[in-house]
Write a structure and sequence with these properties.
Elements (H helix, E strand, L loop, with lengths): L1 E5 L3 E7 L24 E7 L1 H11 L5 E6 L4 H9 L7 E3 L6 E7 L5 E6 L18 E6 L4 H13 L4 E3 L10 H10 L2 E5 H11 L3 H4 L5 E5 L5 E4 L4 E4 L13 H14 L4 H16 L11 H12 L8
Parallel strand pairs: 1-4, 1-8, 2-6, 4-5, 8-9, 9-10, 10-11
Antiparallel strand pairs: 2-3, 6-7, 11-12, 12-13
């Protein structure tokens, strides 16, 4: 059994701004905004939502199936997957376009400004869930081209593959009708607290109404942890305390990788959220989105230190 991850594959240009954005933006002049943030650190990494989520799931013993597109410069991404023994059968390569790119600038308050070039992601809607030969019990519809997300969500629904809808930074691309229809087909919906409020605004649904359409709502709260809601229960899960905060980029994807790895192994939702939080902390403690790693023993010890409970994962 495997989990399908439909989402972006990209190069991340991660930059640190040694000040806060708010000190350089005049609120009453944003209609003529013209600013330059001089960064003091730059690092190029392979990434993208599908890669980031899939990598952490792989670390936790799962074998995700990645559905995504790369461009003429995408060999580093494919080679990384092959080195990690992650299936690349459903990654398409296009010679006439560059791989998606994210330029991410983070300030001292951990606020981020992101510029994203879709590139080969434009070809993602040419891919199909029907192409996946492996038997799949779950899917994650992560950010990529909107049309691909709509297509893959509908294909999962038609094939009766339960899925989590994770629009993240693509949320604003969806119309209210598209958003409501896709949430209505999903089993789970995940968003950070800002995105969840934006979802409520766009759909006109509060969280209680959303739970008439999905079984599980996952709200990530950054340094405050996460909240898991069902019709019957609400779990507030505290974060795993980090030993350092090197870079918050990719923490949300690592959380998703941890959560859905545990979910695929049959753990209850509260445990899944704790596993997600520990995975996110490993990402925060390392610069970049896939530079974290851990052994079975290290992860289990970290989990027990954070939550006072033991964990048994298929690592």
């Amino acid at each position: 059994m495997s989990t399908i991850i439909s989402g972006s594959l990209a190069y991340d240009y991660i930059m640190d701004f040694p000040d806060t954005f708010k000190n350089h933006i005049l609120p009453d002049q944003i209609h003529i905004l013209n600013v330059c943030f001089v960064v003091d650190k730059l690092q190029k990494n392979i990434g993208g939502c599908a890669l980031n989520i899939g990598y952490t799931m792989h670390l936790l013993g799962e074998k995700p199936v990645i559905l995504g597109s790369v461009g003429s410069d995408g060999d580093d991404i494919i080679n990384f997957f092959e080195k990690q023994n992650i299936d690349v059968s459903y990654i398409s390569k296009h010679k006439d376009i560059l791989t998606s790119m994210a330029h991410i600038t983070t300030d001292k308050d951990d606020n981020q400004i992101i510029a994203f070039y879709n590139g080969a992601g434009e070809k993602a809607s040419d891919l199909s869930i029907a192409e996946v030969k492996e038997e799949s019990t779950f899917a994650i519809i992560a950010p990529t081209k909107k049309e691909a997300m709509l297509k893959h969500a509908k294909e999962c629904f038609d094939k009766k593959i339960p899925f989590c809808f994770d629009p993240s930074h693509q949320l604003t691309a969806f119309s209210a009708q598209e958003l409501m229809a896709t949430i209505g087909m999903a089993k789970m919906y995940v968003a950070n607290d800002y995105e969840m409020k934006l979802t409520e605004e766009k759909t006109g649904w509060d969280k209680e109404e959303m739970l008439n359409h999905v079984d599980v709502l996952i709200t990530t709260l950054g340094e405050k942890g996460s909240v898991i809601a069902t019709k019957d229960n609400v779990f507030e899960v505290p974060p795993c305390p980090p030993r350092s905060v090197d870079d918050p980029t990719g923490a949300g994807d690592a959380y998703r990788g941890g959560f859905f790895a545990a979910y695929g192994q049959g753990h209850d939702l509260e445990t899944c959220a704790r596993v997600g939080s520990v995975a996110a902390t490993y990402a925060i403690e390392n610069y970049g989105t896939i530079n974290h790693a851990f052994t079975h023993g290290e992860f289990a010890q970290r989990y027990e230190e954070a939550y006072g409970k033991s964990i048994n994962l298929a690592l």
